[in-house]
Amino acid sequence: MTSGRKAGITFLVVAMFYAVSSWAQAGAASGSNTAAVNAQNASNVCRIFFQTPKPGGTAAFEAARKKHNQFHASQKDTWTWNTFEIGTGDMTGTYVTSTCGHAWKDFDDWEKKMGKADAADAGASIGPTVVGGNNGFYIYRADMSLAPPNQPPAPITSVTIYTLRPGTVPDFIDAIKKVNDALSKADWPKTSGWLQLANGGEAPTFVLLNSRQNWSEFAPLPKSPQDVVTETLGKEAADAIFKTIRETTARLYTHAATYRSDLSYSPAK
């Protein structure tokens, strides 16, 4: 998620309009304190892996991914690993595999149980099929999201990545929550959630995820978010909120990812 972000000022303004068109969530009050936010998100840690197959090697990669999922089944892994295929943008053709809904300590326990064996199996099966990859830890910010964590994957996810200017995180979060509060009073689809990068890439970074059932759901709603915020809070307040979002955002990048159930793993029930 942190590569291929090329956006000038003109693109940033246009993309910002597109991105906020996806907002459909209401967050907690702007003044939420750190302890309360941490407690709310204590079991919302995700680890997300990005892997790009070798040129012409997509079929080999997918076969290796399925084989590695069989390893998880053989180990009776209790975690869910969902895989998505990026279909637009500079990262087209990259596969994303994530596991979410964990506390930080859970990763220590999982590593002790099967970390070395998992790394060895993945290295032997998936390793030869990819040109590279990376991974990072993200927090699902329930306090910024209407959609609860750990929802079933949608057929398509619209992804908008915000890389912020240093020192601007509190202002950005405050502005997002003000927009959310206004949108929550309108009849917007409540299909969105925010991730915050905790470790493993350029920071500060926030990721807006929007669930889509099909491509037609990418069409804009009759009113833009700025229309709704203006109607709710007035033009002066709305202009100030969106000015804050623009000024705190250094780069903006979007792509869409299709859920691949055939490449995902869920523990037996």
Question: Any overview of this molecule?
Answer:
By secondary structure, the chain is α+β, with helices and mostly antiparallel strands. It contains 7 helices and 8 strands; from the N terminus they run ααβαββαββαββααβ. The protein has an 8-stranded antiparallel β-barrel, surrounded by 4 helices. Helix 3 packs across helix 4 (104-125) and helix 6 (225-233) crosses helix 7. The longest helix is centred in the middle third of the chain and has 22 residues, at 104-125. The radius of gyration is 19 Å and the shape is globular.
Which features would summarize this protein structure in a list?
Alpha-Beta Plaits; 8-stranded antiparallel β-barrel; alpha+beta; 2 domains; 8 strands; about 270 residues
Short description:
By secondary structure, the chain is of the alpha+beta class. 36% of the residues lie in helices and 26% in strands. It contains seven helices and eight strands; from the N terminus they run H-H-E-H-E-E-H-E-E-H-E-E-H-H-E.
How do the strands and helices of this protein lay out in sequence?
Blueprint: H1 9-20, H2 34-40, E1 45-53, H3 58-74, E2 82-86, E3 95-102, H4 104-125, E4 130-140, E5 156-164, H5 169-183, E6 192-199, E7 205-212, H6 225-233, H7 235-248, E8 249-259
Antiparallel strand pairs: 1-3, 1-4, 2-3, 2-8, 4-6, 5-7, 5-8, 6-7
Helix pairs in contact: 3-4, 5-6, 5-7, 6-7
